[in-house]
Structures are given as structure tokens and as C-alpha cells.
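Students often ask why inverse folding is considered easier than folding. One informal answer: many sequences map to the same fold, so there is more than one right answer. In these notes we will look at a single instance of the problem. The structure comes first.
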């Protein structure tokens, strides 16, 4: 079965508040069996529009990635992120 991935592209406008969100999201990631593969780090945009912060989370399956992204635990974390930045999140099935 292919793995599932959650990919996020972020712009942080309030680092202090974002850190509160990240801690809560990290607990939810762990609870749902996710593994962070990319979490910030240096970025180089070679084509198109980039974002300063990028995150890639790996899960055992697409269903597990969905369970995390739609979980009540992540919903609570998401509320902590309000007014701390902008984010695009997608869930994708691995090859």
C-alpha cells in the first residue's frame, strides 16, 4: 500500500504564535503515526512561487494522512494558528 503525505507551504507572520501551533500539531502528528520528513530548513525556489517554510509529513497510508488532517486534535491545533500566518496544505498518495 502506498504511503500518504501531508505537504504544507507556509508563510509565518507571528513566530511566537506559530510555535504554539507547531507544538500542538506535532503532538497530533505523533498520535496519528506521522513522521516529519521536512520541517522548515533552507529553501531554494527554482520555478514558480515558493514559500519560506515547507513541511512534508509521511504517514503509513493515504487514509492515515487523512485521519490526521481531519482529526479533532489537528483542528484544535489549527485554531492556535489563527493570525499567525498563511498555509496551504494538501494530502497526496505516494508512488
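Output (designed amino acids):
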Amino acid at each position: 500500500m502506498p504511503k500518504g503525505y501531508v505537504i504544507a507551504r507556509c508563510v509565518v507572520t507571528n513566530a511566537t504564535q506559530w510555535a504554539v501551533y507547531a507544538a500542538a500539531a506535532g503532538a497530533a502528528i505523533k498520535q496519528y503515526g506521522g513522521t516529519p520528513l521536512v520541517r522548515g530548513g533552507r529553501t531554494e525556489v527554482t520555478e514558480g512561487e515558493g514559500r519560506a517554510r515547507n513541511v512534508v509529513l509521511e504517514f503509513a497510508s493515504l487514509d492515515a494522512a487523512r485521519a490526521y488532517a481531519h482529526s479533532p486534535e489537528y483542528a484544535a491545533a489549527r485554531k492556535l494558528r489563527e493570525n499567525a500566518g498563511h498555509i496551504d496544505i494538501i494530502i497526496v498518495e505516494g508512488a
